[in-house]
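REVIEWER CHECKLIST
Item 1: Sequence provided? yes
Item 2: Single chain? yes
Item 3: Sequence as submitted:
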Amino acid sequence: MANIRKLVEADLFDDFLEQAEHLLSKGYYQASAVLAGSVLEDGLRKLCKEYSITFQGHPKLSFMNDELKKQGAYSKMIWREISKLADLRNNAAHGNYEEFAKDDVEGMLKSVRQLMNGTLHSI
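Item 4: Structure as written out by the authors:
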């Protein structure tokens, strides 16, 4: 049953990232960043659970990222990349569109996909 759940979750990640890529291709890079950031946040939340990191409510991406780094879930380089992605998502979600460009979101989508697939080992 756990394997089926993981397959369904992976399929959902792919669906949401495909939606983000579609938004990006239509010029809606701000919305694309918010959607990709949501996928990242959900992935970090699940990784926190695997590392027995507990929290109340809905923690910020930065909190989960910091705690996962402390637990040795990933390297400092990946921690930095996730911090960068979290900043981009926050800027998009809060309407700070002058803080990033379409190219940044293209890189974000690639990094989030690699993180979710477990293939982002070094930047």
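Item 5: Key structural point noted by reviewer: The chain has a mean pLDDT of 87.
Item 6: Recommendation: ____
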